[in-house]
Design brief:
The complex is a heterodimer of chains A (about 150) and B (about 260). Chain A contains 5 helices and 5 strands. By secondary structure, chain A is α+β, with helices and mostly antiparallel strands. Chain A has 2 domains: about 80 residues, Ubiquitin-like (UB roll) (Roll), CATH 3.10.20.30; about 60 residues, [2Fe-2S]-binding domain (DNA polymerase, domain 1, Orthogonal Bundle), CATH 1.10.150.120. Chain B has 2 domains: about 160 residues, Uridine Diphospho-n-acetylenolpyruvylglucosamine Reductase, domain 3; about 100 residues, Enolase-like, domain 1 (2-Layer Sandwich). In chain B, strand 4 and strand 5 form a beta hairpin. In chain B, helix 5 runs antiparallel to helix 7. The chains are: A alpha+beta (about 150), B alpha+beta (about 260).
Chain lengths: ~150, ~260
């Protein structure tokens, strides 16, 4: 079926099976490989993207549910591909990336929270990050780096 | 190949459901990928419930609370009136990853997705409204819905909660069990200095809605001197985190009951 949606402000029109996971469409059809395919079972959060500003697991969303929606991936954090967004810069500077596999998902959570609440507290950030696993950093560096940017 | 059907009204949905009784329903979509992984081939027909205004919204009035079947757990935790009138439900909906809560719909809860919400719905006396093109509208208690599937051609339209009354006290807690989490939802209705109604429901991943009827028998008619519901919190503190989920659940519920009884007598 033919679907139309915005990805990082660009309109995409695709002929695709309606139940295809969004992550597969992003990575395989649109070459947006920033969101990672990890557990494929709503556990790890590495595939987190925003659909109409709400964070979702892209591995669990059938693409038909984003018809007419606005999808944001980590590639859309900054308009200039040569420069890092403040959130990315903060994580890199604080050494809060470890192996980097979870980082795109973490960044999208940071963006969602920033849009919802410009100056969140650590508890709100931790609560929102509860659906994203990181096996390198112990989370503290991620939380601190994000809070610093948001302050 | 899968055909996607997108009804735009309840009437259109009921007709589509009637014409395609074997079609898969796509509500919030939070569990659909796991279902698809178990199927040998993708479903021939899918009915998307996403574009039907009759299935969305939250209405709180003196006749109770109406929750459209497509209302997400995220919307329920964010809603000021739900937080005020049904804090127990609001708290129950706040558990779990935000990415999942943004998509799990209250209408799909009876299927067992997010086991922690069922005890809250049960203890509040929630009823699930079903509609079908050729079947009469019916409202079943949540605990009854757990035991049977919707009839062919029927869809869940809404969840209804009885109105909150003065003297209602509710509590919800999620606690760490030995091999999984246990949730407990409790409710007391106090009037004229005594307990008029009582309920306690325990939920575990394998048994999401265990109704502890003994609580009602033991408590109703007992005089009340303070806010007995607050004692429930104390009763969770020193529970043994070892052992199975079911033994943990039993221990937790008996401790709650004991603390209430001690307080009331």
């Amino acid at each position: 079926m033919k679907l139309s949606f915005r990805v990082n402000s660009k309109i995409e029109v695709l002929d695709v099976e309606p139940l295809t996971p969004l992550i597969e469409v992003l990575r395989d059809r649109l070459a947006l490989i920033g969101a990672h395919q990890g557990c494929t079972g709503d556990n790890c959060g590495a595939c987190t993207v925003l659909v109409n500003d709400v964070p979702v697991y892209a591995c669990q969303v059938p693409v038909c549910q984003v018809d007419d929606a606005e999808v944001r991936t980590v590639e859309g954090l900054t308009a200039d591909a040569e420069r890092l967004a403040p959130l990315q810069e903060a994580l890199a500077k604080a050494g809060a990336t470890g192996c980097g596999f979870c980082t795109p998902g973490m960044l999208m959570i940071g963006l969602a929270l920033r849009q919802r609440q410009p100056r969140p507290g650590p508890e709100e950030l931790r609560e929102l990050l509860s659906g994203n696993l990181c096996r390198c950093t112990g989370y503290e560096a991620i939380v601190q780096a994000m809070l610093e940017v948001m302050e | 190949m899968t055909f996607l059907h997108r009804p735009k009204s309840l009437k259109e949905l009921l007709k589509t459901r009637h014409d395609l009784p074997d079609a898969m329903l796509l509500a919030g979509g939070a569990g659909i990928m796991k279902i698809l992984h178990k199927l040998e081939e993708p479903p021939h027909d899918v009915i998307d419930l996403g574009g039907i205004p009759d299935l969305t919204g939250i209405q709180v009035g003196r006749f109770g609370t109406w929750l459209g079947a497509m209302t997400t757990l995220h919307e329920l935790t964010d809603d000021v009136l739900v937080r005020k009138h049904h804090p127990c439900l609001s708290e129950a909906c706040s558990h779990g990853p935000p990415q999942v809560r943004a998509r799990v719909s209250i209408g799909g809860i009876a299927s067992g997705r997010r086991f922690e919400v069922l005890p809250a719905l049960m203890v509040l006396g929630a009823r699930i409204e079903y509609r079908g093109q050729e079947t009469p509208q019916r409202r079943d208690r949540v605990q009854d819905c757990l035991r049977k599937d919707a009839a062919k051609g029927e869809v869940v339209v809404a969840v209804h909660l009885p109105p909150h009354q003065d003297g209602d006290q509710t509590v919800f807690r999620r606690i760490q069990g030995g091999s999984g989490d246990v949730v407990i939802a409790g409710r007391l209705r106090v009037a004229d200095g005594e307990v008029k109604e009582a309920g306690l429901v325990v939920g575990t991943p394998t048994q999401p809605g265990l109704h502890i009827a003994a609580v009602e028998e033991a408590l109703i008619g007992r005089p009340v001197s303070a806010r007995p519901i607050s004692l429930m919190e104390q009763s969770f503190v020193d529970l043994d985190p070892e052992g199975s989920v079911s033994s943990y659940a039993r221990a937790a519920s008996s401790r709650v009951l004991r603390s209430w009884l001690e307080h009331l007598s």
